[in-house]
Amino acid sequence: MVVYKNQIKMPRPPVYKLVIFDLDGTLTRERSIWEYIHKRLGKWYGFAEEYQNQFLAGEISYEEFCERDAQVWKGMKIEELLEIVKTVPFHEGVDDLIGYLKQKGLKLSMVSSGLSILSNWVHQRYGFDFSVSNDLLHENGILTGKVNIQVYYDQKAEWVRRILDRFEVKPEETIAIGDSHGDIEMFQRVGFPIAFNSSCEDLERVARVSIRSHYLTDIIPLLPFS
């Protein structure tokens, strides 16, 4: 029997339309903007560090952990905190990677359990289409010590669903890039997850690609449309 090639229906590869980034540790070299700010203010070692230890030991909830962190900055001017945030170091090549993705026509989104004072700045600086993270509350530009938690560190799945609905994109048309345990849910709900300098073996097992590099541009040759 002769079978002609045009008689065989091959599955079409997906057309990627959206990328969802984690922020801390993925675009920035710092794995936590919370910790970065504490260290810059001299409030980490022997102080805010203990809140993290209590949370990891299961002694306090995630809400209480965030609230205690935010209390450390109560009374500061939001502008003062923003000046610290703007000094956070980024991985080399962030401009080139984002430029490449935009050139390919992908929508850019960001889901971070960090702080919106950073994600909003990154959103504007690089022209993201959507971003969400946690808000430090302030009155008349003065931090109140309260925080509005929108993204729990290990519960990003709901935000992935909302973003897919927002842009009318299917999971298989979506790329995700992250670095930690908190990105596992996000990776499980997209078609092409990429682990960048992963700090978690479980994340690497879920990822389609895992890469260790000082340069975000090294992701480009690994993208499914490069």
Please describe what this structure looks like:
This protein has helices at residues 33-40, 44-56, 62-72, 78-85, 94-103, 116-126, 157-167, 184-188, 201-206, and strands at 18-21, 107-115, 130-139, 142-148, 174-178, 192-196, 209-211. The model is unreliable at 1-8 (pLDDT under 50). The two termini are 38 Å apart. The protein has one domain: Rossmann fold (3-Layer(aba) Sandwich). β3 and β4 (142-148) form a beta hairpin. It is globular, with a radius of gyration of 19 Å. Helices cover 37% and strands 19% of the residues.
Helix content: 25-40%
Oligomer: single chain
CATH class: Alpha Beta
Radius of gyration: 19 Å
Characterize the largest beta sheet: strand count, sense, and whether it forms a barrel. 7 strands, mixed
**How do the strands line up in the largest sheet?**
4-3-2-1-5-6-7
Number of helices: 9
CATH architecture: 3-Layer(aba) Sandwich
Outline: globular
Number of strands: 7
N-to-C terminal Cα separation, in Å? 38 Å
Strand content: 15-25%
Number of domains: 1
Low-confidence stretches: 1-8
Order of helices and strands: EHHHHHEHEEHEHEHE
CATH topology name, in short, is Rossmann fold
Topology:
Blueprint: E1 18-21, H1 33-40, H2 44-56, H3 62-72, H4 78-85, H5 94-103, E2 107-115, H6 116-126, E3 130-139, E4 142-148, H7 157-167, E5 174-178, H8 184-188, E6 192-196, H9 201-206, E7 209-211
Parallel strand pairs: 1-2, 1-5, 2-3, 5-6, 6-7
Antiparallel strand pairs: 3-4
